[in-house]
Amino acid sequence: MQTTTRVAIIGGGVVGASVLYHLTKLGWSDVMLIERSELTSGSTWHAAGGFHTLNGDTNMAALQGYTIRLYKELEEITGMSCGLHHVGGVTLADNQDRFDMLLAERAKHRFMGLETEIVGPEEIKKIAPVTKVDGIIGALYDPLDGHLDPSGTTHAYAKAARMGGATIETHCMVRATTQRTDGTWDVVTGKGTIHAEHVVNAGGLWAREVGAMAGIYFPLHPMEHQYIVTEDVPLIRDMAQDGKEHPHVMDPAGESYLRQEGRGLCIGFYEQTCRPWAVEGTSWDFGQDLLPDDFDKIEQSIEFAYKRFPDLARAGVKNVIHGPFTFAPDGNPLVGPVPGVRNYWSACGVMAGFSQGGGVGLMLAQWMVEGETERDTMAMDVARFGDWITPGYTLPKVIENYQKRFSVAYPNEELPAARPHRTTPMYDLFSNMGAVWGHQFGLEVPNYFAKTGEPTYETPSFRRSDAFDATAREVKAVRGGVGINELQNFGKYRVTGPKARDWLNRIMAGRVPSPGRVALSPMLSEKGRLIGDFTISCLADEHFQLTASYGSQAFHFRWFLQHQEMGVTICNISDQRTGFQIAGPNARNVLAAVTRDDVTTMKFLDVRRLTVGSADCIVQRLSYTGDLGFEIYCDPMDQRSLWHSLWQAGQPHGMTPFGMRAMMSLRLDKFFGSWMAEFSPDYTAAETGLDRFIHFKKNDAFIGRAAAEAENAEAPARKLVAFEVDAEDADVQGYEPIWLEDAVVGFCTSGGYSHYAEKSIALGFLPTVRVDEKPDVLIEILGKMRAATVLDQPLFDPEGKRMRG
Ligand SMILES: Cc1cc2nc3c(=O)[nH]c(=O)nc-3n(C[C@H](O)[C@H](O)[C@H](O)COP(=O)(O)OP(=O)(O)OC[C@H]3O[C@@H](n4cnc5c(N)ncnc54)[C@H](O)[C@@H]3O)c2cc1C
């Protein structure tokens, strides 16, 4: 057996095989896959082999499209068959919300190059005749849907990889992974030890156990899953005689997916009465095994399916497949460099290996070979969860995800399982004030504050929700007096040391401020993509505080550690520093009442250390609301005393607490972009206008400089623009197509309702050549074309007098 390799991939399921192939495709041939049994010996061999592009996350949907198109390429390269059946598929909608979701998906597909279409009940009957369309409003038809042979496909990936120089070692159990001091790994197997520069965990059903060998907890859990194959069905037999195949049918109401198998049908369920598997860990004795049939568990689902697909009821059951496969808490894969563990990569938690495996392999290979992926991978990045995640959190979330697999995913939905998980000292106090909670990176965050009689649960919806009145009230309180909002949900980092300034100058594209000042700065990847949108506060010569997105903490900190240098110390203090922001015309008066310092001399973007009430605080003058505002940071132990001081001082000024819904409305008044909407690794600084914060005059070779300079030399092809939309009751959420002269020319990044201006606002990309014309466009929201006009000046305080004054 080979004893050294550049990459050791542990696990020969469809995902490990895809990673192996993609590494060779990108030019790494000294790569090795280690499989304890035969290839496909985990979930892969018994999968139903279905594939589809539909995914609530746009980037995941695009990667699913890539995966599906890849199969032809694999067949061509290897001469092997993947057993492809590109039969197309319909996803049914039996109520308006489900139909709204399909309309929103269809709209996104227009600029993703996916040829889906909305069809009505009569067409559904023609396309998928086993379906009884009673009560069905419509469906999304996707010609790319289909199914394949799971084993044949995995072996095709393996053959293509071997052709690219890869090695595959089967019947070789990995028993331990130990890191050497130089960051390389000893992979101890039953056949001897392999010295590898990188390790990839593609252990599928055993990913938890493989991770534990390196001391890593992977937040995933296996669930039992069952599908049934019937005897011949006359309608299918007749279609086959005419040379036709029945397409897939996804019936979210019945939580089922159905397809043709031979001359019969195959139907699987995501039942509410689901069961987690191997809670204490996956046994090494489990192999190419199935679980005992369990019809009781899916009894209600079968009853429903018999009504939707009456042919099923008349066909005998030929085969039952009941097996386990793994899910992460949000159902998306766990991919990428494991934070804090050098040269250890994740390719696990892939619950739809035949829809997603190709995209996962491509992204991971790009990350390893090229240092970054070609598109934003946050939805599948293993760093979207932090150290706070535990098996006690993962299990209920995975069950929730399984049960909601076919539910409508609403843009404003807050899922309840495993909550509250992490709370600040304000939790009970805010709850008593009517806080309606959201959830970010494990933390409870107030979305809005309900008054007596107002809904304490925000009904999930694609349209304006019942949080509308409360949000309007909070926005008006900020703009007309003063609002207070908790600052916990910022990622915060302390950067200290003699080389702190040099390091920041290299890592950040923007200006590094002088002591007592604050600056905004984009953080760029080598290719010039936006990987952060930071506030840098200089507290002293060698002491800085950085703030950015709370949810991207593990993502940012991983980057910082990867680029750490001697002479600089970087600490993630996100949960060691908390506080409040106060914003609105009376904010200064409130602050003046609780500190002895003269805050009237505090200029916009100043930062000071102040005693506020009795708390030692870092106070900086800026606010994402775009109003006169102060961010006041303190130790969590002081948070309640700080609250009482500010709240008491705020009463004469009508102080009102506000939540994230109001915050997102307020920032729209100023067209401020939001992290992961306008600012994400999918976009560049010049495209989004963040290039105005790049300090090209500094003498430092900051990361991404060459790419940003090249982009600045030629205008980017698209630019971010703000629109006023003639919306009715549904505002832009993100990824709606922008139409101009009967063609899709761009898409929205985010939007919402400006309660201050009482207008519906959208931010989105237009081709740069069209921006100056300020064209009137149409934005497709839930299937309706809405007129939209370009806005060239912010709705609130366009000259920044209040913000800076
Ligand atoms: C009933 C059922 C139906 C399904 N239907 C579909 C479908 O229609 N479409 C779809 O896309 N997905 C489907 N899936 C899900 C699909 O099976 C998985 O997404 C996919 O198989 C995951 O592949 P994997 O490579 O990540 O993991 P696995 O297939 O579990 O592979 C992991 C491999 O790692 C090996 N391994 C583990 N530990 C070690 C070690 N220490 N040393 C060496 N080797 C090790 C194992 O032996 C195994 O071969 C279905 C799943 C089930 C249960």
What does this 3D model show about the protein?
With 805 residues, the protein is α+β, with helices and mostly antiparallel strands. 27% of the residues lie in helices and 28% in strands. It is built from 22 helices and 37 strands. The strands form seven sheets. Strands 1, 2, 8, 9, 10, 11, 17 and 18 form an eight-stranded mixed beta sheet that branches. A hairpin with a 2-residue loop joins strand 19 and strand 20 (443-449). It starts with a strand and ends with a helix. Flavin-adenine dinucleotide (FAD) binds at residues 10-16, 34-37, 41-44, 46-51, 173-174, 202-206, 210, 225, 227, 321, 323-325, 350-355.
The helix/strand class is: alpha+beta
Overall outline:
globular
Using only CA atoms, what is the Rg? 27 Å
| Total strands | 37
Ions, cofactors, ligands: which are bound? flavin-adenine dinucleotide
Q: What is the helix content?
A: 25-40%
Distance between the termini: 72 Å
Helical stretch count?
Answer: 22
The percent range for strand residues is 25-35%
Low-confidence stretches: none
> Mean pLDDT, as a whole number?
97
Q: Report on the biggest sheet.
A: 8 strands, mixed
